[in-house]
């Protein structure tokens, strides 16, 4: 049998390459149904338009800020209340979770708490994530459960996955590359339009965080992979060797006992 | 070895899924333990996670990376965002090149999981590439 390498017969290199295909079972994550809230197309479009408007005003302010014209610039009230980017948004949500630990009956153990700088933490209620534009998925996985845990009865935190391609629009509006994750407060100057649209948005569903979680049935997935073909040529000899060894050791032990 | 990667070689024949899952009882057991660990908290949750890990090792079960990523390797805590771990994007390079972006998940025990996703944002784990099907 000639292989790719041109090796023929049962050379060692050739034997190593002989593998058969097998299916290996793998325990699947039972919590696959963590879902982002579904939002209607019209609502999404409206939200994106409003976001672009707000970001444009923020970008305008940022541009003029450094030029010593402060008397004439109108400072949008969002600037100090919003978060842009992964870290600041996540930190703000984490701070809210820590405040609500009694509601969730969470024990934080005796370990040190998550360190949060209170200056960077902001009071945000709406989170917008360009979910389909962010790669890999692991960067956005935590948002549904984090938002759900951070929201209480009086302050619901809403999460929206913006449509694909909105990164380009947002980045252009804010004049900063890779604007993917945004956090907004509930109340600022032009918030009434956003508030009305956000009423249609539901909360994210995370079933295993509910007080009485349901047991998810077992799901095992199968991976296709390869496995080396084991050769049984020397099995007889090996067995004989082992037998001989055992006999000898037995004899030795008996001798020891006798002495 | 290129042979180890089924997604790269095109000559794969489709294998039939087995009717019965091998070691089904054990898989059901660790699945239950994992869910118990997720819905409880404190020392009990850690104990369930540890049990799950030990049973999986003893009976040689394969566990999905998506599960293993939600359990701290040091203290066996079930990782919940904002409660037992905090995610953060770190970039330690001087020029803050996007290639060096690293996602850090820090457990409250201090253990850090690092995902250098900047190197290859399209990277997929082996189980994502070669998944065949499910048995319930």
Automatic annotation (TrEMBL), chain A:
GO molecular function: ribonuclease MRP activity; ribonuclease P activity
Region annotation Disordered: where it falls in the sequence: 228-259
Domain of life of the source: Eukaryota
Basic and acidic residues bias locations: 234-247
Gene Ontology CC: cytosol; nucleolar ribonuclease P complex; ribonuclease MRP complex
One protein family per Pfam: RNase_P_pop3
InterPro entries documented for this protein: RNase_P_Pop3
Gene Ontology biological process terms, A to Z: intronic box C/D snoRNA processing; rRNA processing; tRNA processing
PANTHER family documented for this protein: RIBONUCLEASES P/MRP PROTEIN SUBUNIT POP3, RIBONUCLEASES P_MRP PROTEIN SUBUNIT POP3
UniProt protein name: BA75_00892T0
Natural source organism: Komagataella pastoris (Yeast)
Taxonomic path: Eukaryota, Fungi, Dikarya, Ascomycota, Saccharomycotina
From TrEMBL, chain B:
GO molecular function: metal ion binding
Gene Ontology cellular-component terms listed: nucleolar ribonuclease P complex
Entry keyword Zinc: yes
BP term (GO), one: tRNA processing
Sorted UniProt keywords: Metal-binding, tRNA processing, Zinc
InterPro entries listed in its UniProt record: Rpr2/Snm1/Rpp21 (IPR007175)
Positions of the UniProt region annotated as Disordered: 1-23
Compositional bias of kind Low complexity: 1-10
Family: Belongs to the eukaryotic/archaeal RNase P protein component 4 family.
Protein name in UniProt: BA75_00479T0
């Amino acid at each position: 049998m000639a292989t790719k390498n041109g090796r023929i017969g049962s050379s060692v290199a050739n034997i190593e390459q002989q593998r058969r295909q097998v299916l290996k079972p793998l325990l699947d994550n039972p919590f696959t149904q963590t879902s982002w809230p579904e939002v209607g197309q019209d609502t999404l479009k409206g939200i994106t338009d409003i976001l672009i408007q707000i970001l444009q005003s923020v970008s305008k302010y940022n541009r003029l800020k450094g030029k010593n014209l402060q008397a004439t610039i109108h400072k949008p009230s969002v600037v100090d209340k919003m978060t842009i980017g992964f870290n600041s948004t996540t930190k703000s949500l984490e701070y809210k979770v820590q405040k609500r630990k009694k509601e969730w009956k969470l024990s934080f153990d005796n370990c040190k708490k998550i360190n949060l700088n209170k200056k960077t933490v902001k009071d945000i209620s709406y989170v917008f994530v360009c979910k389909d534009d962010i790669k890999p998925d692991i960067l956005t996985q935590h948002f549904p459960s984090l938002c759900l845990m951070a929201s209480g009865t009086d302050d619901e935190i809403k999460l929206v996955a913006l449509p694909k391609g909105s990164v380009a629009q947002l980045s252009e509006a804010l004049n900063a590359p890779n604007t993917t994750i945004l956090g907004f407060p509930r109340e600022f100057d032009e918030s009434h339009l956003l508030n009305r649209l956000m009423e249609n948005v539901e909360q994210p569903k995370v079933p295993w965080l509910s007080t009485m979680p349901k047991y998810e049935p077992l799901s095992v997935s199968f991976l296709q992979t390869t496995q080396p073909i084991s050769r049984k040529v020397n099995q007889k000899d090996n067995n004989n060797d082992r037998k001989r060894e055992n006999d000898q050791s037995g004899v030795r032990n008996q001798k020891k006992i006798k002495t | 070895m290129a042979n180890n990667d089924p997604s790269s070689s095109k000559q794969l024949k489709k294998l039939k899924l087995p009717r019965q899952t091998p070691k089904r009882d054990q898989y059901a057991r660790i699945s239950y333990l994992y869910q118990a660990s997720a819905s409880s908290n404190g020392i009990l949750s850690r104990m369930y996670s540890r049990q799950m890990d030990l049973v999986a090792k003893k009976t040689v079960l394969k566990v999905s990376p998506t599960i293993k990523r939600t359990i701290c390797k040091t203290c066996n805590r079930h990782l919940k965002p904002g409660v037992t771990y905090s995610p953060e994007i770190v970039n330690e390079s001087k020029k803050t090149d996007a290639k060096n972006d690293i996602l850090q998940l820090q457990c409250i025990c201090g253990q850090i999981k690092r995902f250098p996703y900047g190197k290859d944002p399209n990277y997929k784990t082996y189980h994502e590439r070669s998944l065949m099907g499910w048995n319930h």
